[in-house]
Amino acid sequence: MHKNQTTSSSDKPSSDLQVLRNRTFNELAVGDSASVERTLTVEDIQFFALQAGDFNLQHIDAEFAASTHVQGVIAQGMWGGGLISGVLGTRLPGPGSVYLSQNLRFLKPVSLGDTLRISVTVSALDPDRKRVSLDCQCVNQAGDIVIEGEAEVIAPIESIVLDRATLPEIRLKTGSGGGIERLMAHVRSFSPIRVAVVHPCDVLSLSAALDARSAGLIEPVLVAPQARLQALAAEAGLDLTGIVIEDVPHSHAAAERAAAMAGKGEVEAMMKGSLHTDEFMGAIVASAAGLRTKRRFSHCYLMQTPAYPRPFIITDAAINIAPGLEEKADIIRNAIDLAHIIGVEQPRVAILAAVETVTPTMPATLDAAALCKMADRGQITGGLLDGPLAFDNAVSPAAARIKGIQSAVAGQADVLVAPDLESGNMLAKQLEYMGHASSAGIVLGAKVPIVLTSRADSRETRIASCAIAVLIAHSYRNSPP
Q1: C-alpha 343: how far from its chain's center?
Q2: Distance in angstroms (rounded) separating the CA atoms of residues 32 and 25
Q3: Helix locations, 155-242, DSSP H
Q4: What's this model's pTM, rounded to 2 decimal places?
Q5: Strand pairing partners for 306?
Q6: How many whole angstroms from its chain centre is CA 264?
Q7: What are the tens digits of pLDDT across the range 320-376?
Q8: Rounded Cα distance, 115 and 140, in Å
Q9: Which of 33, 56, 288, 315 is within CB 3.0–4.6 Å of 121 for a Cys-Cys bond?
Q10: Domains of the chain
C-alpha cells in the first residue's frame, strides 16, 4: 500500500478521502500550494513500463541495474512527472483544470523505497485567460530535490465537488516470458525420464501424470492397485493405453515398490500420488531402498510471483520440521545445487529470521550467523550466503537500504532459507494463494529427484514439478549425487 498524505492551503479539507474539491480561478492566490506523498514500489515501475513501453533494463532488471553507476533499480523519469499531473488534476487547481504545458528537470534518480513529496505552488495568475503558472517539485525523504519544473494550466471557473472514484483492481501477471514458462520451454529439449508415480488413485494425480507424459516430460510407471486405477480412468474418461502399471495391493506397498525400483535404477524419479507424505517418504528414507546419499533430504519450492523480478527457491517447507545447524547446512547445499541446475551460477542465499541482527534469544539468528561463517570457511560452497535477514530486506532493495544493510544478497535473494518447516510452509502457501505465485516442488538429497506435491496442488504445479525433476535427472546422469 502506498503511503499517501495531502496538504493544501485551501480552507476546504482537501485531505477528505471521500470527495474531490477543486479551486476555481477566483479562489486562487500566488503562494497557494498542495502536495502529496508517494513511496516508489516495484509495482509502480512495472505498471509504468507496461503503459509507456519503457522497458529500459535500468528500471526492470535488478541484476543489470546493480551493475550501473546508480547501483540499483530506479523509476522512469516521467513517473515523477505523472505524480505532478495527479496533484494538478486532483488537488490544485483540481477537477476541471486543463493541463497546457510542463517543463521538468531531473536532478537525481528515484530509487525503490524512496518517498517523494510532490508539491505544486501557484507562482503567477493570468486573469484574462484564466491561466495559472505553478512551480513543481518532487523532494525525497532526505530533503533532496529530485525533480523540479514549471506547469501551466487553465483553472476551472466553477466549483466542482465529486465523490472519489474507486479504480478497478489491477494485478500483474507473469507473461509468456515468466520463469515457469521459460522452464517448460527449456525442458522440452530434454528426453523424457522414466518416473514411478506412486498410488495416483485420484483424478488430479492420475491426470497430472498423464498430462506430464503428453507434454513429453516423463514416461510414467503407475505403481498402484491396477483394478482401482482402471476403474478411476474409466470413470474420469482417461486413457491408460500404453501406460506401464505395477500392480500392488495398497498405498504402502506402492511406496515400497516404487522406492525399490528407484534404488535399482529402474526409474529416474519418483512422484507422489494420492497417498500421505509420511507414508511416501517413509519408504524412500528406509535403508532398504538404497536411496540415501551423504546429504539430508530437503524440499525446495521453485516459485515465481509477479511482485519479484526472478524465480526463487523457498526451503525447507515440507521435510525437516525443526532443522538444526547441520541439517540447515544440507538444506542450503541442496538448494544451491538446484539453483545451479536451473541455470543460476552463483545463487544469493538469504537465511531468514524475524530480524536481521544476531540475537542470542533467537536461535534462528545464531544459526544464520554460523552458516555464513561456514560458507566463509568453505564448508558450504557454490553460492553467496547472508543472514540473518528478515523477509522484507531479503527481497526488497528498498527495505535493505532503509535498514542500512550492505549486502550482495539483501534485496535480491535467489534462495530463501526458512528457520523451520512451519514458517517455510506458511510463506510458500501465502505466496501461492495470496501472492498469485506459480510454484513447483521437489525433494533433493536422494539418489533420484522426488516430486513431492500436496494433494491440494494444481495440475500445473504437478507438471512444473515434473519439469524440475527432468532437469535434475539429466544432471544426475553426468554427476550422480
Answers
A1: 18
A2: 12
A3: 179-187, 203-214, 226-236
A4: 0.70
A5: none
A6: 38
A7: 999 999 999 999 999 999 999 988 999 999 999 999 999 999 999 999 999 999 999
A8: 6
A9: 33
A10: 6-158 (3.10.129.10), 179-478 (3.40.718.10)
